Amino acid sequence: MTLADFSQSIAVLRPTLRSFTYHFTSDREESQDLVQDTILKALLYRDKFRDDTNLKGWLFTIMRNTYINNYRKAQRAKTSHDDSKELYFLNTEDTHTFNRPEESMEFKEVWRNMNSIKDEFLIPFKMHTTGYKYHEIAKHLSIPIGTVKNRIFHARKEIQKKLVGYH
Question: Potential cystine with 158: which of 9, 16, 117, 127 (Cβ 3.0-4.6 Å)?
């Protein structure tokens, strides 16, 4: 396949690629960037494409891998490292909510309201908020996974009802 034929085939698939981006993102600009990155990589790595390969599938694979790599890169960028002298940022005062009296009172109020709901709902809710997965909670409590999800949902609703006028 000549470069002109290859480019034309990609141009024909551009609308299909654009619609496929919505599997990954609903943001219009991010979608356009993903299509452009995919086409750019396809053109750069044209020599890797074999004529007996499905071009659309090849482009979708490039797009999926590009999205995953960009996502991982963004996640790594959120991680911070303190390279300052004497770890300045790690040793600065914590201004988290529990260090201020008014926020501490709010936290205690939320906790009190949370603890006032039935244990039937509270136990799965607390397990879920501390990091247990639904299937782990179901196994630990010997109940179906649907029941776990239902109880967590009802726990949230109960807590929300109790905190309606509180902000």
Answer: 117
Residue 67, token pair as written in the block? 């999205």
Which residue in 126, 26, 120 sits closest to 67, CA to CA? 26
What is the pTM assigned to this prediction?
0.47
User: Region 66-87: what's the mean pLDDT?
Assistant: 73
What pLDDT does residue 3 have? 83
Place of tokens 């609703």: 157
Domain count for the chain, please give it: 2
46-63 confidence digits (pLDDT tens): 888 888 888 888 899 998
Q: Give how far Cα 12 sits from Cα of 16, 38, 64, 72, Å.
A: 8, 14, 19, 30
Q: How far apart are CA 11 and CA 57, in angstroms?
A: 15
Give the dihedral sign, CA 125/126/129/130. Answer: negative
* 139 in any annotated domain: yes
Domain end among 78, 105, 127: 78
Rounded to the nearest 5°, which phi and psi values hold at 146?
Answer: -65, -35
Measured distance CA(57)–CA(63) in Å, rounded: 10
Same domain (yes/no): 105, 156 = yes
